[in-house]
Structure formats: structure tokens, C-alpha cells
Amino acid sequence: MDLFANIQKYLQQRGLQELPPEAQGLVQNIIYELMEKGLVKTDQTFSLETKNEDFARISYLSAIIEQNWILIQQNQRIADKLDKLIDLSMSPQEKIEEQTNIVANLRKQLNNPKLSSTNKDILNQQISEGNKKLNQLKKQLRKNT
Predict the structure, then answer these.
(1) Residue 26: which of 76, 95, 84 has the closest Cα?
(2) How far apart are CA 120 and CA 123, in angstroms?
């Protein structure tokens, strides 16, 4: 299984696959960095030769990481509810402007020379999804006028 698929599996296992594009990109970058350094694995298996102290440290750090994913998920639920409230108060034109800014920010992130090809692929996917949403909003605006 390739790294991108592992990241998607890891997100799905923790209920984080529904994050908005800008948050999902950050979370995927974190997971990518942790996996690259061997601090997080999708299968969570350990060698039988692992020392007790090392196993305890790994278990403790894994618990902290899992708690962070729970906090991210809870914060996203709160953010989603706030977005619904804001959405009710925004005009269609304001929604288009906001989505345009989101896509523009994602494009700026692509210019980072330190990005790996995996992270570039993730950003390109998010830009594509953002453009689809932008086109839907524009179509909706034309339909209503």
C-alpha cells in the first residue's frame, strides 16, 4: 500500500476524513511527517525485541497522538456548526469570495519548495475539490439571479 493510501486509511480509522481541505492538508502533513520518522504506523505493530521502556514510551506517545486526533475531530465538529451559522448569514457572493480565497491559499502552499510530491498531490486534490465547490456556488448564484 502506498503512503497516500496509508494516510487516507489512518484518517479514516480516526474519523478525520471529513475535515475541510485546508485542515485535512495540515493533518495529512502531520501524519506524513510522523510516518516518515517511524513515530506512527497504520498497523500499530511492534517488534517482539522492543524493550519494555521503549514500548512504554511508544505507548505513551501513541496515546497522546490519539488524544490529539480526538481533539481535532471535536474541534472540527464545533467549526462545522459555526460554519453553518455563518453560512446562513452570508450572501452567495460572499460565499464565492470565501471559497476563492480558500483555493488561492491552497495554491500558495503549492509553491513551498519543501513540499514532498505526496503533499503536492494532496494539495492538488484539495484544490480540485475547492474548484468544484466554487463552480457549484457560481452555478447556484446564476440560477438564483
Answers:
(1) 76
(2) 5
What single letter denotes the amino acid at residue 54? Answer: D
pTM of the predicted protein model: 0.51
Other Cβ atoms within 10 Å of 15 Cβ, number: 13
Residuewise pLDDT in 10s, the chain (145 residues): 576 777 778 778 888 777 777 777 777 778 777 777 766 655 554 444 556 777 777 777 877 888 888 888 888 889 889 988 988 888 889 999 999 999 999 999 999 888 888 888 888 988 999 999 999 999 988 888 7
SS3 content of the chain, % helix, strand, coil (to 5): 75, 0, 25
Chain-centroid distance of CA 67 in Å reads 16
Cα–Cα distance, 36 to 122 (Å, whole number): 16
**What is residue 1's three-state secondary structure?**
coil
